[in-house]
Specification:
Layout lengths: L1 E7 L5 H15 L6 E7 L11 H9 L22 E4 L2 H11 L5 E3 L13 H4 L2 H22 L2
Helix pairs in contact: 1-5
This protein binds 4-nitrophenyl phosphate.
The site of 4-nitrophenyl phosphate has 11 residues, from loops.
Length: 151
Amino acid sequence: MIRICFVCLGNICRSPMAEFIMKDLVKKEGLEKEFLIESRATSDDEIGNDMHPGTKSMLDKYNIPYERHYATRLLKSDYDKYDYFIGMDDYNILSMKRLFGTDKKVYKLLDFTKDDKEIDDPWYTHNFTITYDDVDKGCRALLEYIKCKDK
Ligand code: 4NP
């Protein structure tokens, strides 16, 4: 079992988008039984809230299935529950390193692509299209990385 936790600030825009895109990619490859895929927040701001409507509209546009989401805070005790903690931006990475006291298992999503970039936060940019394209690219690259690693 490969256990992935996507992480962003609020857990209503970027990390649940990554969660449902990755679940869909894995399912399309018939690998869903081999993966546990979830997402968490580094802040308390949106705890319990569903995904942002802008995130849902992008998932709808690409026919990516999703369920009612409840934003959930990342805890220090989560460290042993996952193999990969995938942050969206440099601040998420810093927050996780502080929380866990290590950067082992901690990665930035677009580090799996050729771009040294962050995933823009659409909470601030209002541009869910750019965020979706980058998250999709990152998730595809992450899946390829994991598949090559486990061969
Ligand atoms: P996310 O976006 O980290 O991609 O979920 C945000 C959502 C909410 C807030 C900030 C970022 N907020 O400040 O409430």
